[in-house]
Amino acid sequence: MSVVLSAQNLHKSYAGQAVVDGVSISINKGECYGLLGPNGAGKTTTLRLMLGLIEPESGSLNLFGLAVPQHAREARQRVGVVTQVDNLDPDFTVAENLLVYGRYFGMNDSEIEARIPMLLEFANLTHKRDVKIPTLSGGMQRRLTLARALVNDPDIIFLDEPTTGLDPQARHLIWQRLRELTAQGKTLLLTTHFMDEAERLCHRLAILDHGRMVAEDTPRALIAQHIEPQVVEVFGEGVTKWADENAARFSIRFEVSGETAFCYVDDSQPLLAHLQGHAELRYLYRPANLEDVFLKLTGREMRE
């Protein structure tokens, strides 16, 4: 597989604090690659380094075989970016936002106009072509931001938390569109706080914490490597006392967070049978998922 983006041993600090600390990533053509991590883990700084918007203190970075940041301007001609914030121009219509953005890439108006119908169809916004941005719902604006990132027909799209704040219907539509892009051979670099999103979309992903990469693999492989196959979440009045007295008997590993005891097991049946006799407790049985991996590797404490 051809490598689209390669980063080796990147370092970046602010005020003496390491924000990106030895990160190395290689992303292949047609791959959706995820960057996960708590707030402050270094995800956005890593994206900015890869785009050549800031310069690393050490390490090397190549995008389409071009050294970044030295040749970042040339490389960005083949890049699309979906930022966390929908920075659309409220004074322009939907179509005008696409037209003006295309001009930044040196495209002529006729070339952009030829792409606009396809982009609006992709975003399910054909019927909104001539309306101004303030009349659009949040989900519509997010879809337009995604369509705008495709105006130059990029080979790689950087997506920084693309579905934050969207309702389930809008999220699922964007997921569908992102899968269509990878099916077309586009490469995606995705940051997200939604573990189900990463599990559904990413071919591979890296988990960052305190600027370091703590794990990298396919979602399924990470779950198999780091987490027991079954999870029983026990909650209700007296769960802390119950966990102190019983959880270790039935679990390979357990954690208590707030009012919930997370019991990680190979075989859930003995624990489920035991819980049948404790009507004061409620429980949820499920297979292990990527969120379990994320919390095990980065901790359950809040990050500000």
Can you put this structure into words, describing what you see?
- The chain folds into two domains: 3-224, P-loop containing nucleotide triphosphate hydrolases (Rossmann fold, 3-Layer(aba) Sandwich), CATH 3.40.50.300; 228-287, 2-Layer Sandwich (Alpha-Beta Plaits), CATH 3.30.70.
- Helices cover 35% and strands 29% of the residues.
- The protein contains eleven helices and 14 strands.
- It has a six-stranded mixed sheet with strand order 6-7-8-3-9-10, with helices on both faces. A four-stranded antiparallel sheet has the order 2-1-4-5. Strands 12-13-11-14 form a four-stranded antiparallel sheet, covered by helices on one side.
- Helix 3 packs across helix 4 and helix 8 crosses helix 11 (290-298).
- The two termini are 39 Å apart.
- The mean pLDDT is 94.
Give keywords.
globular, Alpha-Beta Plaits, 304 residues, 11 helices, six-stranded mixed sheet, Rossmann fold
Query: What share of the residues does DSSP label as strand, in percent?
Result: 25-35%
Could you give the count of β-strands?
A: 14
- Please work out how many helical segments DSSP would assign: 11
CATH superfamily membership of the largest domain: P-loop containing nucleotide triphosphate hydrolases
Domain tally: 2
Strand pairing plus helix content: what structural class? alpha/beta
Mean pLDDT: 94
C-alpha geometry: globular
CATH T-level fold name of the largest domain: Rossmann fold
Helix content: 25-40%
Biggest pleated-sheet summary? 6 strands, mixed
Order of helices and strands: EEEHEEHEHHHEHEHEEHEHEEHEH
CATH architecture group name of the largest domain: 3-Layer(aba) Sandwich
The low-confidence parts are none
Using only C-alpha atoms, the radius of gyration works out to 22 Å
